[in-house]
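Risk mitigation, structural track. In case the binding assays with magnesium ion fail to produce interpretable data, a predicted complex structure has been prepared as a fallback.
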Amino acid sequence: MTQFRQIDLKNKIKEKKLHLILDLDHTLLHSFNMENFGKDKMSEIFTTKDLQKNLFFFNEFNMVTKLRPFVFDFLKEANNLFQLWIYTMGTRDYAKRMAKLIDPDETLFGCRIISQEDCTIRGQKGLDVVYADEKTILIVDDTVSVWSNHLRNLINVNRFNFFGTSKYMKEREFEDYELSNVFYLLKKTHTMFFDPKIGTTEIIDRDVRDYLKLAVNEIFSNM
Ligand SMILES: [Mg+2]
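Fallback model:
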């Protein structure tokens, strides 16, 4: 597998693409058990047209799923700079169903969907099941604790908790800019990584984790 990773590394540098691993729940979407809905929430959904955008009901699971604002733009733009992966602690069936929602044409993820059944360490997400060099991988996830061996690859996002708060959902619909903020950081990291003037090492020897740190520092120093 090491050899496979080395070949992939060379190809990625040539294509100017890195790897991006995306969590599903609370990162790209929020799935909620409808049994936990009060009547007021149901009526808010059915009487507010804005809330019905990117909302999907799965009666067989008693589940409703809301996609995070900007998710389609985020994926489309990120796909130009990264090879995209889904990595979820949910089951394979759930992962595939959600992939179909966010990637209806099946052009973004291919077979790069990792689910609970693939994990090798209980309660942890590891990069051992990702066929790519760790130096080329960035991760976007709302949960830090599952990535304890790969914290330097991680961009931790605020939880998208559309249904689970007492706040009116209508407010949540229009106040969540997390994916557009994350894309800004991803793009900056990608640009710096491939800029031959930044750093003294050859691009092939670079580690994206160093460049993520640089990009974060630069963004914060300009704030
Ligand atoms: Mg999550």
